[in-house]
Amino acid sequence: MDQKRWEAKFTPMIRRLPKNKLKELCAPFNESKDIALLGGGLPNQAMFPLTSIGVELAGGGSINIKGFSPLRAAMQYNGGGIPGYKPFLKELVDREINPYGECDKDWDVTPCAGSSDALSKTFRIVVEEGDVCFLEDHCYGPVLSLLTGQDACIRGVKGDSNGIVPSQLEAACQTSKKEGKRLKLIYLVPAGGNPTGAFMPVQRLRDIYKIAQKYDLIIVEDNPYEWLRYNSDLKSTCVPGLKLGGFKPFDADKRVIRIDTVSKFLAPGFRSGWVTAPKPFISQFNKLSNLSSHSGCALSQAIVMNILKQWGAKGLRDHVQKVQQFYQKRRNIVALALDKHVKGLCEWSVPQAGMFFWIKPTVGVKNLNSEGLMPTLLKHKVLLVPGSIFSAADANSPYFRLAFSYASEKDLTVGVRKLGEVLRDVQNSKTH
């Protein structure tokens, strides 16, 4: 989509919203040495309380941010990220994802305060009252809340272990079109869906993209879990390593907004991520950032950038492999425990990415609502998340989301065993 077509996608709010004129005037001169800076209201760096920041890395090594200039920059206002951060991110994206090839410069990257910040701003920029937004019929809860807050028309689409089913999306688009609705976007987690654990192979991505082209949909690609990919062989200790891509490599129309975060491969407390998208969208995103949360915590950006710079490309790949091996082992523990304790009581697929199993009890209870089993599970000291929390239709759901990321390896096995005991009790109660 060119500039004109993107502008037609923007909400009246973002089109009305003026730029931060003060920042636009003063920011270009903040690092100048040959001008008396009497304009901006920057706090004086002489009063900043830190002189250095030292971080010891878990795998060995350390980083130190010290010296007047780099530390000052990390403690000062930074609407577009600390100096050097945006070019660093663009180089990372170009190297690991290569959105459109070296000859195409119509895309850009901008920092954000993690995925939640990026999603909130994205929906404010492109979603207005009545816009139809398609997503999987069970979807990450905060996305449902954000879209509801925008008065969007949320349409859940049936999915399988490979994500949204293209034929179901096509049918939903046709229905919405016949109803005279304004179709706006599709929200997807291509790898390791939350809550479903779905993993979209390349052909599924291409099929979805063709439908987006046909109905002129924006694709919002949320990718926190693409960094956590696993081997399908439960007996193997090998992992895929760093393999990023999603929709971006074949986004010929420039309709994809890709969101990345360091939360899953570094740590969520950094509240740091980035958005890769066509330049017209990035321009509006930066405008909104400069009038709200800016681009996130500058100190976090400084730490993240220094860690990744010290690692280099090979170090990052080595680290991602280590993270994948850690979570893959835990996934395998749960997969084996499910096969041992709930086989015949549930249906599930082994996730190829992410942190979640999506489990459907099959204990002969018609129209089972998993939420109804929560009191019994909690009595047995087991916490799962009922599928109704993720329902795009705000309806009952038979599913549970089981997270294998946090609990101890022992608790993973014990928790699955107790789930089996509860479901077996339910089954027995229905046969007497």
What is the topological layout?
Layout: H1 3-9, H2 12-16, H3 21-26, E1 52-56, E2 62-66, H4 68-75, H5 85-96, E3 107-112, H6 115-126, E4 131-136, H7 141-149, E5 153-157, E6 159-160, E7 163-164, H8 166-178, E8 182-188, H9 202-215, E9 218-222, E10 256-261, E11 273-278, H10 279-290, H11 298-341, E12 346-347, E13 356-361, H12 374-379, E14 385-386, E15 400-403, H13 409-430
Helix pairs in contact: 4-11, 6-7, 8-9, 11-13
Q: Describe it for me?
A:
This protein has 432 residues and is an alpha/beta fold. 39% of the residues lie in helices and 16% in strands. It is built from 13 helices and 15 strands. It has helices at 3-9, 12-16, 21-26, 68-75, 85-96, 115-126, 141-149, 166-178, 202-215, 279-290, 298-341, 374-379, 409-430, and strands spanning 52-56, 62-66, 107-112, 131-136, 153-157, 159-160, 163-164, 182-188, 218-222, 256-261, 273-278, 346-347, 356-361, 385-386, 400-403. Strands 3-11-10-9-8-4-5 form a seven-stranded mixed beta sheet, with helices on both faces. A four-stranded antiparallel beta sheet has the order 12-13-15-14, with no helix packed on it. The protein has a two-stranded antiparallel sheet with strand order 1-2. Helix 7 links the parallel strand 4 and strand 5 (153-157). Helix 6 (115-126) packs parallel to helix 7 (141-149). The chain is globular and about 80 Å long. The model has no long low-confidence stretch (mean pLDDT 91).
